């Protein structure tokens, strides 16, 4: 199980990402909250480079007890990346499409060997 080299551990800090090329396409590798997550860089919508999009906290609607809208806030627990083509959002920890949770990006295992990070594809 050789895998594809991604980066040195010290070079991929929390919040960073790398796009690695394989013979079958690209994979986005994210360092997030102490873990590593890897997904096919191919949006479920129209095949755009989803893993290259902006990262942002989940936006939460704030509702009063009577369900009236009070505004919005950023989640402290969930981060998304947004496909740059048409805005589909994905949970960085699961690859699930936020707008349609039945769909998700293909995921890959990420392993640490010594100081080197590899993705298994
Ligand atoms: S291709 Fe990603 S949102 Fe359309």
Radius of gyration, taken over Cα atoms and rounded to an integer in Å? 16 Å
Order of helices and strands: EEEEEEEEE
Termini separation (Å)? 9 Å
Shape: globular
Under CATH, the topology is which? Rieske Iron-sulfur Protein
User: CATH-wise, what's the superfamily?
Assistant: Rieske [2Fe-2S] iron-sulphur domain
Count of DSSP-assigned helices = 0
Outline the biggest β-sheet: 6 strands, antiparallel
Protein model, in words:
This protein has one domain (about 5-120): 3-layer Sandwich (Rieske Iron-sulfur Protein), CATH 2.102.10.10. The protein is about 0% helix and about 50% strand. The chain is globular. It has strands at about 5-10, 15-20, 25-30, 35-40, 55-65, 70-80, 90, 105-115, 115-120. A hairpin with a 5-residue loop joins strand 5 (about 55-65) and strand 6 (about 70-80). The strands form two sheets. The chain has a six-stranded antiparallel β-sheet, with no helix packed on it. The protein has a three-stranded antiparallel β-sheet with strand order 5-6-7, with no helix packed on it. The mean pLDDT is about 95. The protein is built from no helices and nine strands. The protein is an all-beta fold and about 120 residues long. It binds FE2/S2 (inorganic) cluster. FE2/S2 (inorganic) cluster binds next to loops.
């Amino acid at each position: 199980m050789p895998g594809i080299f991604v980066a040195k551990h010290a070079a991929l800090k929390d919040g960073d990402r790398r796009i690695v090329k394989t013979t079958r396409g690209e994979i986005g590798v994210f360092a997030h909250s102490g873990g590593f997550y890897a997904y096919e860089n191919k949006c479920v919508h129209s095949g755009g480079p989803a893993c290259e999009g902006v990262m942002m906290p989940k936006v939460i609607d704030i509702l009063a007890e009577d369900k009236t809208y009070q505004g919005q806030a950023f989640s402290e627990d969930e981060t998304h990346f947004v496909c740059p083509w048409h805005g589909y959002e994905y949970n960085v920890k699961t690859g699930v499409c936020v707008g349609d949770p039945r769909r998700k990006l293909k995921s890959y295992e990420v392993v640490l060997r010594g100081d080197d990070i590899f993705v298994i594809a």
